[in-house]
Amino acid sequence: MSADALPPGERPDLDSLMADLFGLNIRGAKTIGHLFMRPKDVFDSARVYDWRSQYTPTLRLAFSILTVFSLLSFFWTSEDDILYQTLYNQFSEIYANDPNAGDVGEMIDAMFAGYNIFFPFIYMLVHGLVGSIVFLWGKGTPWVARIRLYFGIASVGIAISVTSLMIMPFIDSSLFWLYSIVGMSIGFLAYMLTYARGMRGYYPIASLIGRSFFLAIIVTLTDFLVALIAGTSASLWAESSFA
Q1: pLDDT class for 67, splitting at 50, 70, 90?
Q2: By C-alpha distance, which of 198, 182, 186 is closest to 159?
Q3: Is the pLDDT of residue 173 over 90?
Q4: Measured between alpha carbons, how far is 90 from 176 in angstroms, rounded to an integer?
Q5: What three-state secondary structure class fits 203?
Q6: Which residue has the higher pLDDT, 110 or 192?
Q7: In whole angstroms, what is the distance from residue 132 CA to residue 152 CA?
């Protein structure tokens, strides 16, 4: 069938190509934009079986961004990168007196590769388990809606992490820990604000603030746990390859 014979709405376009490449489309961009600007609209739609045909499911959105994040990490990571240099210095000290140790640079390259492969799957598994047992979304919210809402919060953090990674090559290595603390604080505040704005009207103000703070702690600690598991897995894999 000729493409000209198809109705305009059925012809593949740029949105279709983006979906082919990354599983994302214009609706996905709209979803992440509304999670920052109008989270209550996304939260209300998460409670409806088809998202009111307005938003990309947050579970898919989170995994898609994580996948793109991991793919682009290969291009953003270089020997001049602040994180690379920090790890290189640490491993150089650890293996300075080990004659059987492999090349530190190759070990770190393998570690980054392993981390980028492990991280998305570990993130989805651990956050999915936590999201299913978090009861902060109103009485009677089913477990599917809880996971949808939780990953709406998580997607905001992932988007901030992508931005943080893009900026990292321009940060001086001496500012690494300060940059990390600032990034963590921004993420924590974003979790609080997204929950508070998305759940506005469900709870009194004082209760809403307390719940948003508690949820931000849960998501932040889970982020740390995911990073720890993924980092440990990548380190063990890299060390076993170059021991």
Answers
A1: confident
A2: 186
A3: no
A4: 14
A5: strand
A6: 192
A7: 13
CA atoms within 13 A on the CB side of 78: 7
Q: For residue range 22-51, what is the model confidence (pLDDT) as tens digits?
A: 555 678 889 999 999 999 999 999 999 888
Which residue type does 184 have? Answer: M
Q: Which residue has the tokens 């390259």?
A: 109
Going by C-beta distance under 8 Å and a sequence separation of 6 or more, which residues neighbour residue 23? 60, 63, 64, 67
At position 105, the amino acid (one-letter code) is G
pLDDT at 237: 81
Residue 79 per-residue DSSP state: T
- In the structure, what pLDDT confidence band is assigned to residue 170 with cuts at 50, 70 and 90? confident
Phi-psi map region of 135: left, alpha, beta (phi>0 left; psi -120 to 50 alpha): beta
Query: Partners of 203 in the beta sheet?
Result: 200
CA atoms within 13 A on the CB side of 12: 7
Scan for tokens 């570690």, then name that residue.
111
Span of 19-33, 80-94, 158-172, 209-223 with lowest mean pLDDT: 80-94
Take residue 224 and report the two structure tokens written for it: 């740390």
Binning the chain into helix, strand and coil, the percentages to the nearest 5 are 80, 0, 20
**Do 212 and 196 touch, CB atoms closer than 8 A?**
yes
DSSP labels, 162-187: HHHHHHGGGS-GGGHHHHHHHHHHHH
